[in-house]
Automatic annotation (TrEMBL):
<dbReference type="Pfam" id="PF01507">
    <property type="entry name" value="PAPS_reduct"/>
</dbReference>
<dbReference type="InterPro" id="IPR014729">
    <property type="entry name" value="Rossmann-like_a/b/a_fold"/>
</dbReference>
<protein>
    <submittedName>
        <fullName>Phosphoadenosine phosphosulfate reductase</fullName>
    </submittedName>
</protein>
<dbReference type="InterPro" id="IPR050128">
    <property type="entry name" value="Sulfate_adenylyltrnsfr_sub2"/>
</dbReference>
<dbReference type="GO" id="GO:0003824">
    <property type="term" value="F:catalytic activity"/>
</dbReference>
<feature type="domain" description="Phosphoadenosine phosphosulphate reductase">
    <location>
        <begin position="32"/>
        <end position="211"/>
    </location>
</feature>
<dbReference type="InterPro" id="IPR002500">
    <property type="entry name" value="PAPS_reduct_dom"/>
</dbReference>
Amino acid sequence: MNLKQKIDYSVNLIKKAERLALQYDPSNGFYLAFSGGKDSQVIYELAKMAGVKFQAHMNLTSVDPPQVVKFVRKHYPDVQLHRPKESIYKLIPKKKCLPSRLIRWCCDVLKEQSGAGTVTILGIRKAESLRRSKRNEIETGKNNFSGSLDQFDTHNETQVSCIKGIDKILLSPILDWSERDVWDFLKLRNLPHCELYDLGYRRIGCIMCPMAGKKEIARDRLMFPKVEKAYKKAIKNLLASNPKYGSKLNNDENLIFEWWASRQKQNVFIALNLQQYKINFD
């Protein structure tokens, strides 16, 4: 499909799903998950084009780039901003570990629990990652449905009776869009974008996200030194609640941060940096 066909398909998909969204939340319709990034801008604009009822929400995490927050407040003032009950720095000692690719508790606590009891529009795309390439345009929680909207209608003959049994329904209208499609759409609709993209960022998310690579972490360290300082303070508090966590790294918050930022397994990091940091490898 070309871009026009993809736009038409996505708009029609959102229109078709509105009936279901209103069954879940008659007052607000869709729960639109907004991040301030280019993909969330697209689903916001598509929802407007579809003429459906929706409310956009942005869940702040306490490690949000200030440029993103400023952009959202200026260009999307109707987006509801939700601050976390506890910052990620306070959660680290409570979770007794730093968030990582394997233990990504940060998203679960700070983002993924939002939108319960709604039809939530997401801006995810298959091209972003192997994990997302396996996603479907509509997915549910407790009855584990995953497929197309038409298949969902057949699977759930009476959606109203299923509402109480499902945590939320996830709708991904731009799942098959490419990155070029996204940029072309923003240009077509004459929409501004966050300045971080002009500074080399391809994706916008939390500062020093556990899913980011070593190069992205290094860039964030240069741009956001206060966040690194706050992380090290959180690590110090973590060691007080879980002393064993940093035992192989001298219980040194600076050294532990260097290991975490390296994106290496701990034993690999220790082997490569044994003499440089005088690590006690016992």
